[in-house]
């Protein structure tokens, strides 16, 4: 939208649209790549217990 508006507007509006065309996608990419380290937990391979179907009750 901002890129298309750069074709039609003049003056300070052109600067505003050009800045929006650069800044808005940058903010979107940065926010999309944020990782919440408080809730993500990596389990060690040693804590995984293999499933043995012979241990089930009949």
From TrEMBL:
The chain crosses the membrane at residues 12-35. Keywords: Membrane, Transmembrane, Transmembrane helix. InterPro entries: DUF3099. This is DUF3099 domain-containing protein.
């Amino acid at each position: 939208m901002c890129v298309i508006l750069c074709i039609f507007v003049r003056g300070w509006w052109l600067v505003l649209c050009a800045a929006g065309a650069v800044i808005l996608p940058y903010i979107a990419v940065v926010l999309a790549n944020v990782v919440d380290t408080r809730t993500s937990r990596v389990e060690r391979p040693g804590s995984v217990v293999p499933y043995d179907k012979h241990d089930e009750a009949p």
